[in-house]
Specification:
Elements: H1 5-15, H2 21-25, E1 28-36, E2 43-46, H3 48-60, E3 67-76, E4 79-87, E5 95-105, E6 108-116
Parallel strand pairs: 1-6
Antiparallel strand pairs: 1-2, 3-4, 4-5, 5-6
Length: 118
């Protein structure tokens, strides 16, 4: 399966950090939902503004020399599942793994659920 352009652009914008904020926001639908575990518990953010506020928390202490590698890509119904490895000397052991589950509509991300590990 080839990676959809919307998801490829999402990862490029993510790797740019705060400099990619405008580009990242443009990837999400106005009513997008984002669920993430980065504060130690799963949190749900509803609406593009709330999604971007959650993303901005990570930019306050950016990961040094961050690189995101896509380990696998698959589709389940209308869901696209991307398993990834994030490499950075800021992470314990120099890397972390996770899974993103995307829902797309009209070229925009309508839902993103991120979990840690594969």
């Amino acid at each position: 399966m080839e990676m959809p352009l919307e998801i490829s652009n999402f990862f490029l914008s993510m790797q740019a950090g705060a400099a990619g904020a405008r580009s990242l926001a443009a990837r999400f639908a106005e009513d997008a939902v984002y669920e993430e575990p980065f504060t130690g518990e799963m949190r749900r953010h509803e609406g593009r503004d709330a999604v971007m506020q959650a993303m901005a928390l990570g930019w306050e202490q950016p990961l040094q020399d961050m690189e995101i590698l896509v380990d696998s890509l698959s589709a389940r119904g209308n869901e696209i599942v991307v398993k990834w490895t994030c490499i950075s000397p800021s992470l314990p052991g120099g890397q972390g793994q996770g899974t993103n589950r995307f829902q797309l509509k009209d070229g925009l991300i309508t839902q993103l659920i991120t979990t840690m590990g594969h």
